[in-house]
C-alpha cells in the first residue's frame, strides 16, 4: 500500500526515551490508525548543521509537514516561507505545514496549552502567573494573553530572560505584564487565578523536584497547571492538590498541540482520547 501522506518529525529525543517509544510518534500514529489515514509520522534526529538540508528534503519529497523540537524551533524559521501570526510574535516554530509547496511555520505549544486550559478555565479576564521564561513559557504567555487574560506575571531566576517574555506580552497583546524575580519560595498573590509551571522542573528523571512555591498561598480553587508530560502527575500538581487546587497536567498540552498539528496537516479531526491513551501507555500513567 503506498503511503499517501508523509510527516517528517525533527524531534531530538527531548523526552529521554528510545526512538521506538517516542511519545509523540506513538500519539500521532495512534491517531492516524484510528482515523484510517494511510500516513506515517517518523522521528528523525537532525544535527543543527543539517537542518536546512532536512527541510529542503521534506519540501522536495512533498511531505505534508513536520514538527520540530529543541534545538531547531528558532533556527527552522530561516528555511521556511511564512510565519503564522502567533509564531511570529513568539519567535519560534514547532509545527510546519506544507501548503501547496509553501512551508508555513506555526507554534502549537501555546495553542495546545490554551485548549487544555479551557477544559477547566477560560483565561479571559484572569490573572495568570507563569513560572519560567523558556520556550514553553513564551508560547503560553503569548497565547494566554491573546486569549484575553487580564495580566501575565512571569516569575523567573534569570532576569533578562524573564523580562524578555514580559516585553513580548506587553508589546503584542492587550494584557498587563509584570516580571517577578524568583528568589526563595514564590508567594502566590491572592488575586491570582491560574498558576502555571512552565519550567523543566519535575521532568523525568527529576521526578521529585518541585518548583519553589509557598504552598500555604495555594488556595482551594486556584487553577494549577504543569507543562511536564513525563510523569504527568508531577510532585508539583500533587502538592497543589493537597491545598485544594484544581490541577491540569502536561499531557493535555501535548495532546492538544498534536490535535492542532494533525488538523492543520490533514484538515481532519483526530480523536484526542486515542492520542492521550497512546501517551499514557508510553509514560505508564
Ligand atoms: P527552556 O530550557 O527553554 O526553559 C526552562 C525554564 O525553566 C527556564 O526559564 C529556567 O530558568 C527554568 N528552570 C529550570 N530549572 C529551574 C530551577 N531549578 N529553578 C527555577 N527555574 C528553573 O525549556 P522549555 O521552555 O523549552 O521547556 C520547559 C519544559 O516544558 C520542558 O520540561 C518540556 O518538556 C516542557 N514542554 C512540554 C510541552 C507539552 O506539550 N507538554 C511542550 C513544550 C515543552 P532560567 O531562565 O532562570 O534558567
Summarize the structure.
This protein has 285 residues and is α/β, with parallel strands linked by helices. It has nine helices and twelve strands. Strands 2-1-3-5-6-4 form a six-stranded mixed β-sheet. The chain has a six-stranded parallel β-sheet with strand order 9-8-7-10-11-12, sandwiched between helices.
Chain-wise SSE layout:
Elements: E1 5-10, H1 23-35, E2 39-43, H2 51-60, E3 65-68, E4 82-83, H3 85-90, E5 95-99, E6 102-106, H4 108-117, E7 127-131, H5 135-146, E8 151-156, H6 159-172, E9 176-181, E10 194-197, E11 223-226, H7 235-242, E12 246-248, H8 250-266, H9 272-283
Bound molecules: NADPH dihydro-nicotinamide-adenine-dinucleotide phosphate.
Description:
- The chain is α/β, with parallel strands linked by helices.
- It has 9 helices and 12 strands.
- It has helices spanning 23-35, 51-60, 85-90, 108-117, 135-146, 159-172, 235-242, 250-266, 272-283, and strands at residues 5-10, 39-43, 65-68, 82-83, 95-99, 102-106, 127-131, 151-156, 176-181, 194-197, 223-226, 246-248.
- Strands 2-1-3-5-6-4 form a 6-stranded mixed sheet. It has a 6-stranded parallel sheet with strand order 9-8-7-10-11-12, sandwiched between helices.
- It is globular and about 55 Å long.
- The two termini are 34 Å apart.
- Residues 70, 109, 112, 132-137, 156-158, 161, 182, 199-201, 203, 227-229, 250, 253-254, 257 line the site of NADPH dihydro-nicotinamide-adenine-dinucleotide phosphate.
Amino acid at each position: 500500500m503506498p503511503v499517501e501522506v508523509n510527516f517528517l518529525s525533527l524531534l531530538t529525543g527531548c523526552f529521554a526515551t528510545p526512538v521506538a517509544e517516542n511519545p509523540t510518534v506513538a500519539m500521532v500514529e495512534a491517531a492516524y490508525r484510528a482515523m484510517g489515514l494511510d500516513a506515517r509520522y517518523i522521528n528523525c534526529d537532525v544535527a543543527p548543521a543539517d537542518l536546512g538540508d532536512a527541510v529542503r528534503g521534506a519540501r522536495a519529497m512533498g511531505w505534508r509537514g513536520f514538527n520540530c523540537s529543541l534545538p531547531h524551533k528558532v533556527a527552522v524559521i530561516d528555511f521556511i516561507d511564512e510565519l503564522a501570526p502567533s509564531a511570529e510574535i513568539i519567535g519560534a516554530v514547532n509545527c510546519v505545514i506544507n501548503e501547496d509547496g509553501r512551508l508555513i511555520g506555526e507554534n502549537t505549544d501555546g495553542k495546545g496549552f490554551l485548549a487544555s486550559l479551557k477544559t477547566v478555565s477560560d483565561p479571559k479576564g484572569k490573572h495568570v502567573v507563569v513560572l519560567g521564561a523558556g520556550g514553553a513559557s513564551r508560547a503560553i504567555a503569548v497565547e494566554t494573553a491573546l486569549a484575553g487574560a487580564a495580566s501575565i506575571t512571569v516569575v523567573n531566576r534569570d532576569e533578562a530572560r524573564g523580562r524578555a517574555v514580559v516585553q513580548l506580552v506587553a508589546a503584542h497583546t492587550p494584557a498587563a505584564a509584570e516580571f517577578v524575580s524568583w528568589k526563595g519560595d514564590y508567594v502566590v498573590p491572592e488575586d491570582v487565578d491560574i498558576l502555571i509551571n512552565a519550567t523543566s522542573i519535575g521532568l523525568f528523571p527529576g521526578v521529585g523536584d518541585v518548583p519553589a512555591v509557598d504552598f500555604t498561598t495555594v488556595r482551594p480553587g486556584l487553577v494549577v497547571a504543569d507543562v511536564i508530560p513525563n510523569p504527568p502527575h508531577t510532585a508539583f500538581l500533587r502538592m497543589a492538590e493537597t491545598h485544594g487546587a484544581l490541577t491540569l497536567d502536561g499531557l493535555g498540552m501535548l495532546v492538544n498541540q498534536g490535535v492542532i498539528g494533525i488538523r492543520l496537516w490533514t484538515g481532519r479531526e483526530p480523536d484526542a482520547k486515542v492520542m492521550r491513551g497512546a501517551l499514557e501507555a508510553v509514560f505508564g500513567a
